[in-house]
Amino acid sequence: MKTVLITGCSSGYGLETARHFLSKNWKVIATMRAPREGILPLSQYLRLLPLDVTSNESITAAVEAAGPIDALVNNAGIGVAGAFEATPMAHIRKVFETNTFGVMAMTQAVIPQFRARKSGVIVNVTSSATLAPMPLAAAYTASKQAIEGFTGSLAHELAHFNIRAKLVEPGYAPTTNFTRNTEVDVQDLIPEAYADFAAPIFAGFASPALTTSEIDVAEAVFHAVNDDTGQLRFPAGADAVALARAS
Predict the structure, then answer these.
(1) Chain centre distance of CA 186
(2) Are 37 and 61 contacting, i.e. CB atoms less than 8 angstroms apart?
(3) Number of Cα atoms under 13 Å in the Cβ half of residue 199
(4) For 154, what's the count of Cα atoms within 13 Å in the CB-facing half-sphere?
(5) Where are the domains of the chain?
(6) What one-character DSSP code corresponds to residue 7?
(7) Which fold does the domain 3-246 belong to in CATH?
(8) Is 166 in contact with 224 (CB distance < 8 Å)?
(9) How high is the mean pLDDT in each 10-residue block of the chain (247 residues)?
(10) Alpha carbons 214 and 138: distance in angstroms, whole number
(11) Active site amino acids
């Protein structure tokens, strides 16, 4: 039986991905900053571990407690939407600490065990915002775009050791809170000068033609973990698939 460690399992994509892997008879190490009993079904194959991907000490402790794993899913992330001009640099740095440096730090922490066994897979969850330019998402897109380049390069670098690196690119999921874990209210990031520009964009978010569900992402992650064809990118959700085909 194989083991997967998933970051950011308190809600949304991470929680659904943990459920999905359990249903596929994997051992699941579900991590989150503050583990809560009851959010996942009781199973002898489930472990909950505390993990803050912005803390080196927390990463070291979690990886040691997890023991050998077969797959790492870097899902933890925070969102930010609004005019770049109005977004505090302090918050942008926090977004990068989680979405970019947190992914890199977790990846670096598990590579040694994968390299020693000459097996393993790393799946990094980014966003369909990397597939086409989207307004009012510049900082967020930059944090995810960095991981796109990082993962593509890493896939070549680690193939020498039979380690696979993959990308899952979710679309827009209205049922998730895009700006969860953020300390900045989106309304504070839309100055009056941007109001006319932003209004139709947020109206579009309120009634999108195509969307992504949590299970779309969970299934894409499971597919990516088990893929051995060399495919790098796995768009998740109808809107992400449409963007990928158009790009």
Answers:
(1) 21
(2) no
(3) 4
(4) 22
(5) 3-246
(6) S
(7) Rossmann fold (3.40.50)
(8) yes
(9) 97 97 98 93 95 98 98 96 95 97 98 98 97 94 98 98 98 68 73 92 85 96 97 96 90
(10) 24
(11) 140
